[in-house]
Design goal:
Layout lengths: L4 H6 L11 H11 L11 H19 L3 H17 L5 H4 L2 H7 L2 H5 L3 H11 L35 H17 L4 H7 L6 H13 L5 H10 L3 H9 L3 H7 L11 H17 L12 H4 L10 H16 L4
Helix pairs in contact: 3-4, 3-8, 4-6, 4-9, 12-13
Length: 314
């Protein structure tokens, strides 16, 4: 660091950055960039997200054709985060995550707005479900080689994200619908109930048959998909898990652990029991539910979670 002190002090001054010519660029690359830093830049996922957002900002400034491709990737990341709002840190940014997925937000987008998104979401992408984390790990090199026909499975992700957002807003406005009421109460659905939900969205012009089929496949059932959008009634979930909250017998740690499950199910509508062995649950019980419950109660708890989740499947 001492050998580069002159350059370091030079570029600590704002006026040194007003005009960057080739000579200054070479000095920055050769002398400043290789220096070690005490600043923590976060997880691998956060750094990859930084790269995406910097690339998106640069594409916006240059008017590059890559902008639409990078925008679609950000929309897919926002959609993946929206599915994880049971995590408090993500729930805290829910409004921004939803706004990113609207056409209105992109109409006035600029570099400061994109930078705000980078700063507020970079530490959240690590929470994206394992099966969808590939969207954060991508090669952003802008090179054109020989023309080769390739499959792009993420094409259409932005359209599906918009379908989910429109469906969520529509269903929230119609929570008094009989089938949606049953779904939110955790009551078993029939094939007729699911058909009514599909017809409800199609008749409202929210999506087409392709969107419905994709929703069915990605969520392992259309009922699961709808419940992931509207959640579960908190009182119904609390009642279903009541035996684990019995006054006088449940410890403070047990009550807090079950409370986190109730929060997740209320928000997400369904839950994979394997999540009990991941954050934020492991923040309370690092080794899993066995740390707060005996083996028999863990078995019953997992069974009850599956029972609640499967009630959305006809």
């Amino acid at each position: 660091m001492r050998q580069r002190r002159r350059a370091v002090e030079k570029y600590q001054r704002p006026e040194a950055w007003i005009a960057i010519d080739d000579e200054k660029r070479k000095e920055l690359v050769d002398e400043i960039a290789p220096l070690p830093s005490a600043k923590q830049f976060g997880t691998e996922e956060a750094k990859r997200f930084d790269l995406l957002m910097f690339s998106l900002q640069l594409a916006l400034l240059k008017g590059s054709k890559r902008f639409d491709t990078l925008k679609k990737q950000l929309l897919e990341i926002a959609s993946a985060l929206e599915d994880q709002t049971g995590i408090p840190a993500i729930a805290h940014r829910a409004v921004l995550i939803e706004e990113i997925q609207t056409d209105i937000w992109w109409e006035g987008v600029n570099v400061p707005l994109l930078e705000l998104v980078r700063l507020r979401l970079r530490d959240l992408v690590q929470h994206i479900e394992k099966g969808r984390k590939a969207i954060v790990y991508s090669d952003f090199a802008d090179e054109i080689g020989d023309g080769v026909e390739i499959d792009l499975p993420q094409v259409g992700e932005a359209d599906f994200a918009r379908f989910k957002q429109k469906a969520r807003h529509f269903l929230k406005r119609h929570e008094d619908h009989l089938v949606l009421h049953k779904l939110r109460q955790g009551k078993p659905l029939t094939a007729i109930d699911l058909a009514a939900l599909e017809k409800m969205l199609l008749d409202a012009g929210i999506g087409d048959a392709g969107d419905i089929e994709r929703a069915r496949e990605t969520s392992r059932g259309f009922g699961r998909f709808v419940r992931s959008l509207v959640g579960l009634d908190r009182a119904a979930v609390s009642e279903a898990l009541g035996e684990f909250l019995s006054a006088g017998t449940a410890s403070a740690a047990q009550i807090e652990f079950v409370g986190m499950i109730i929060e997740h199910l209320t928000d997400q509508g369904t839950m994979d029991p394997s999540l009990l062995y991941e954050p934020p649950f492991t923040d309370l019980a690092p080794t899993g539910p066995e740390q707060v419950f005996d083996e028999d109660r863990v078995t019953r708890l997992v069974s009850r979670i599956r029972e609640i989740s499967d009630s959305a499947v006809a």
